Each structure stands twice: as structure tokens, then as C-alpha cells.
Amino acid sequence: MVKELAGAFERIADLLEISGSDAFRSNSYRRVSRILKNLTDDIVALKEANVIAEIPGIGKSTAAKIEEYLETGKIKMLEDLKKKLPSGLPDLLRIPGLGPKKIALFYRELDVTGMDDLEAAIESGALAKLDGMGAKSVQKIAEGISFLKTSSGRTPFGLALPVAEELAAYLREFGPIDQLEIAGSLRRGCETIGDIDLLCAHDDGEALIKHFVAHPSVKRVLASGSTKGSITIPVRGEREIQVDLRVVPAESFGAALQYFTGSLDHNVHLRGLAQKKGLKLNEWGLFSGEEAVAGAEEAGIYEQLGVAYIPPELREDRGEFDPDLKINELIEIGDFRGDLHMHTTASDGKNSIEEMAHAAIAMGYEYIAISDHSQSSAIANGLSVERMWEHIEAIRQADKAIDGIKIFAACECDILADATLDYPDDVLAACDLVVASIHFAMTRKKPSPTERTIAAIENPYVTIIGHPTGRLIQRRPAMDLDMSAIIEAALKSNTALEVNSSWQRMDLKDVHVRMAVDAGVKIAIDTDAHSTDDLLRMHYGVRTARRGYVRKQDVVNTLPLGKLTKWLEQARH
Ligand code: DGT
Ligand code: CA
Ligand code: CA
Ligand code: ZN
Questions:
Q1: Chain CA centroid to CA 71, Å
Q2: Which end of the chain is more exposed for a tag (fewer CB within 10 A), N or C?
Q3: Does residue 338 carry a pLDDT above 90?
């Protein structure tokens, strides 16, 4: 909330500057934005107490705008400014390296009113002829435009993580680095990433940052100093992502890690706790007067503030400061005894039952479930009823032949458009467990996807609902579902909901998993592996589940084999 509000004031300042207002006026709004970002108190509480105007640096008229925003979600002044300027101009502010002063200049001198005009002015050479512009600055703007076009803004977690890990490895090639961590939204396990934040403790920041910006795949260098370097890196040739590296002294590393991990809202809350104790918290440390009481270790900050260490995935100011929270019970990657959703060459997987089983043994699993596609998933080579009977037999044979792991016979059964299941009950009954999923007719209204999902939940043989919302991050929206109704049905019939660990899916997502476990519904965190390598992607689902406050005891595939078998018996009624 406070982040958006701060953004609105930033936007006012930008638009004032573009429209030719004096710097003093626009800067006063920038100052308000900064004050809001660093506010320690809850803005809604301040409003309720009617004391917004008492925030240092906030005058009466600004307070009125803040209240207006909190009440209506808008600020009239901002809306008026947007109306006054050509509607394409504010868009130009999204171009990296192009500020409001330059935009004002282009508007005044060349009548540039939007992206198309700007590109035309670059093309014709008119931009380069302007006072204070040159070939180099025009080139920068052209590059900024292409960046904007190739990056849809945010990058899915699964694409950003390998970039961050490769850069971290590259930084280590520079020589011994005291400490190095990935911070920001990536450390919190968010499903999409605005930019990557890296943090190092080192005493020669300048040299390390020189090495950083010289990485062979760097597309553009946005900053290169002694404490901060900023670059862009291409991702899969289709987009670019920004990477910030900050270098701090070892005695501040913990405080900087805490600060740059965020989230902003979490930090605001934490700074408030510090203030109540008469302490000051910033990216350099936790201070009592001039003296640092913590800073080298991140855990030390929480400890000194008298709160339990909060794992990064929970740092969203969504209740993680609650002292009753049993944070150390959150699900961890080491808790898994098996994986209940995977495909083989029988449908669209790359490996055989035996290969999947041996890979799972190598991971230390006690059991797996082979769950290939059912007959209606034709593009995924779904199994006809006849082939499914043979497949069940093949799974039973493999289970007998291979020691050291239990191989369950299962299927990923389509939930059809008419809300029936893709296999008759006798096939489903012959399986040890059934994952039921919707793969098509996702936007169909009657029966609705909610009705179809609940019908599947109520089938006695269905044990898990696979990727319940069907969303693909940045590619396909979630189905229009009544999640509360689904959760209620799942609870009643003891059906687990899946957290699918494919990073394109992460489905259920964090807030929905939290709703489910709060209601007491069991969760299955599965990889939906289509190859032995895919079995290793469980960590994506774990991050999502942790963000949803999922504990080990909520997850069925953390149960030892005997207990899981009991659960399956109860779940199939
Ligand atoms: P992103 O990059 O949009 O996915 O999200 P974050 O959370 O990585 O955000 P980013 O990269 O802008 O900043 C990293 C962290 O630094 C953020 O989570 C909190 C902290 N931070 C940034 N600016 C401020 C600020 O003005 N005040 C405070 N208290 N913290 C800030
Ligand atoms: Ca970031
Ligand atoms: Ca950043
Ligand atoms: Zn599926």
C-alpha cells in the first residue's frame, strides 16, 4: 500500500517536471515519496488516528492527498496531470536512462508525444540535433526502448534464478569473497522478479564491481561505482533483466542483507519495532545512538529486536511477526519422502518407469507415483483404457523388480468438460492414487471449472487435484475459480490440493496454499516431472509453499510410506 502511494507521489513529481514546472515544486513531491517509503508506522493506522499531517515533512495539503488516495485509490492532482499531458508522455518515463527533463525537451522542441514519435525522431536524426543531445545519448535511448520492448517488466522466478546463480559463480572467480548472497524478491521466492539483487561483503568494492560489469553476457552497464554496480543481462534471447550488485563492509553485511531482501513492507514493520526500542535500523546496522548493536549477521538484527528469525519467504508483512507462529516447522526440501506426480515414456515423459525409479532412489525417496496422462489428453499421448490397464501392470512389475523404493500405480486423469472423469471408476479404483487435473475447456462456463473441480474432488478415488488453477506464469491466467468452495470440498472429502513445482506453474500459488492449509486441507507438493532431471525441481514448489505458511505436517508426501498408505486408504472412501 505504502509502496504504491510513494509511487504515486513520484509520478506526480515526474509529470510536473515534464510539464515544465520548477524543480523546487517537483522535488517537494519526490521528498514526500521518500518519506512515505521510509515510514515506520502503518499509514492506515495513522489515517484512522487522524495524524497523517503530523508526519514530519508532510504538510496539510499533502496529507489531504494521502487521505484521498487511501479512500479512493486515486489522487485528483495526478489524474489531472495525466489528462493535461499527451497520454503517451508518461509512458516514456519507463524507458531506462530517460528522465523527465529530456522528455520535456523532446515534447517542447520536437512535439514528441509518445513512443512512436520518439522512435521517428531517432530515426530521422532530429533527436541527435537537439541541444545537449548527441549520437551517444540517442543510442542509449534507442537501447532503452528496445529493453522496454523485450522485457515485459518482470521475469518468472525460474528464469531469473539461473541468471543470479551464474553471476554469483562468476563473482567468485574474482577471488575470495567474504560473503555473497542473492537478496531481493529472488531470495523471498516471489513468482516473478523485477530485478536481481546481489550482495557481497568485500573490501575492494570498486575492483569487484569492475569485474562484475565486465561479465561476457552484459548487454548494458547502467552504473559502475565503488559500492553499486548495475547491468542488464539477456534472458533466453527474449528479454533482458537488470542485476544490481551492492558491495558492503563485512560489519554491515547482515544489515544490508536484511534491508535488500525486503520486502519494503516487511522492512517498514521491522524499523517500527526498532523505533519502539529506541533503536535505529538501516542498511548499515542496528544502532543505539552511535553504537552498532547488530549488523554483521542478519539473524542478529532479529534477535536484538526480540523477534524470532523470519525466513525470507515470509517477509511480506502478512503476519510473519506473530509471536505464536511456529516458523521452524515450515516445510523444507529435506522433508520429502517421495513425489506423487510424474510422467514416463508411456505418455509424454522422456524416461521409463525404471529410470524414474532409480533417479528417485538416488534422491533418497521412499516412494514415487507414476501418473501418466489419461486418454483425452491426446497431444500428451494419453493412455487409452486398454493401454492404462497394461501400464498399471507394468508399474506393478517394476515395483516388484526394483528394490529400495515403493512405486505406486497412478494416473493424471483429465477432468472433462462435462465434469466427469476421463477413466471409468474401475480403472481409477485399480490405481493406488489418482491425480485429477483440468487441461482443456478452461474458460467454459457450464459446468464451471469450480463445479468440475468439486465433482472430481467428490469422486472417491481422486486423491490429489493437480495444478488446481491451470495458470501458466505470464502465459495463461488462472481459471476463474471459487477457491473457498474448492477448499471446503477438499476438506470434506480429504482430497489433497497440489502445489505443482514446475516454475511455469507454481500452482497453487502462495496465497491460495495459505488459505488451504489454514482450513486444514492437505497439500501434495509434486514436480509433475517429465524427465529424471525434472525430479530436482521440487525446490520451486517448496518456496511457494513456504510463502503460503505450509508446515511439514500439512504435506502428504513428507509422510513415511506406512503413514502415507494409511492416508491413501482414508482418502479413498
Ligand atoms: P522486485 O525487484 O520488484 O522483484 O522486488 P524487490 O523486493 O527485489 O525490490 P527492489 O529490487 O526494488 O529492492 C530490494 C529490496 O531493497 C526491497 O525488497 C526492500 C529494499 N528497499 C529498496 N528501496 C527501499 C526503500 O526506499 N526503503 C526501504 N526501507 N527499503 C528499500
Ligand atoms: Ca529486486
Ligand atoms: Ca534492485
Ligand atoms: Zn497436468
A1: 29
A2: C
A3: yes
- Closest approach atom of ligand 1 to CA 186: 8
257 shares a domain with 243: no
Quick check: 151 pLDDT over 70?
no
Do 535 and 515 sit in the same domain of this protein? Answer: yes
Nearest CA to ligand 1 atom 2: 194
Spell out where 389-529 has E strands.
406-414, 433-437, 464-465, 496-500, 523-526
Burial class (CB in 10 A: 0-12, 13-18, 19+), 110: middle
CATH of the domain at 161: 3.30.460.10
Tell whether 459 and 343 lie within a shared domain.
yes
pLDDT tens digits, residue range 26-48? 989 999 998 998 887 888 888 98
Say which CATH number the domain at 130 has.
Answer: 1.10.150.110
CA of 306 to the centre of ligand 2 (A): 27
Number of domains making up the chain:
4
Q: Is 408 in the pocket of ligand 1 (CB under 6 A)?
A: no
- Would you say the pTM of this structure is higher than 0.85? no
Residue 400: CB partners within 8 Å, gap ≥ 6? none
What is the span of the domain harbouring residue 220? Answer: 155-169+193-248
434 and 308, same structural domain? no
- Same domain assignment for residues 354 and 430: yes
Q: What is the CATH number for 286?
A: 3.30.210.10
Question: Measured from the CB, is residue 262 less than 6 Å from ligand 1?
Answer: yes
Task: List the one residue out of 303, 439, 326, 328 whose CA is nearest residue 381.
Answer: 439
| Ligand 1 proximity of 469 Cβ (cutoff 6 Å) | no
Whether residue 312 contacts residue 298, with contact meaning beta carbons closer than 8 Å, is answered with: no
pLDDT, tens digit, 9 for 90 and up, residues 276-328: 999 999 999 999 999 999 999 999 999 999 999 999 999 999 999 998 888 88
What backbone torsions phi and psi does residue 111 show, to the nearest 5 degrees? 60, 35
CATH of the domain at 373: 3.20.20.140
Please name the residue whose Cα sits nearest to atom 23 of ligand 1. 264
